[in-house]
TrEMBL record:
InterPro entries: CHP02453 (IPR012808), UCP028451 (IPR015996). Transmembrane segments: none annotated. This is DUF2461 domain-containing protein. It comes from Flavobacterium yafengii. Signal peptide: none annotated. It holds the Pfam family DUF2461. It comes from the Bacteria.
Amino acid sequence: MIKQTSLNFLKELKKNNSREWFEQNKLTYQAYKDDIVFFTENLLLELAKLDLSIANANLVPKKCLTRVNRDLRFSKDKTPYKNYVLVVFNKNAPHGNTAGYFIHIEPGNCMVGGGIWQTTPEFLKKIRQEISYSYEEFNEIISNKQFQDIFPSGIQGQNKSKKFTDFYEKSDPVVELLKMKGFCTKELINDKILTSTDAVKIIINYFKTAKPLIEYLNKAIEFEE
């Protein structure tokens, strides 16, 4: 579970997003960070039991977290800190672009899911090709009752291609999938879940449901012709 004080820190950071406030609250930040790292360790231990590829990846919990500092180089928003933390478990970390599990921790906007939000053109082409060749297998994963119960929002991605002519498909559902630039699940969860004693168990159930999707996507990415 995550301590309520950690969520409170993120709420306060959102209201007081300045270097001055952050420096004045360094001790509170350190306590928050220690708590999130500990929570990540527990999640990783349980996920490793579920997914052998994660177990073999030797992930370091603190490196599964996004940094608190924002990259301001190309942003109009100059607030220096993120008022959330993203925890990502990817078997190919630190090299991204492959499918993995994630939890987004932000008071009032916590989310959990898995898959791939965006990737390289090369990997995207491989995923689209795999879906084109084996749509029935992909559809079986996303139409499974447990998947639909846990992830009612379905498959999501960064956006869609307006024009798509790489593959010739007869079925409209397949065409709409192939237009996507990412293939990800994400569902909002109540803050109270994260501060409950069942937090790890509940999140792992989300991960377990997302696992077949993640394996399908990574199989496509790793396929060598």
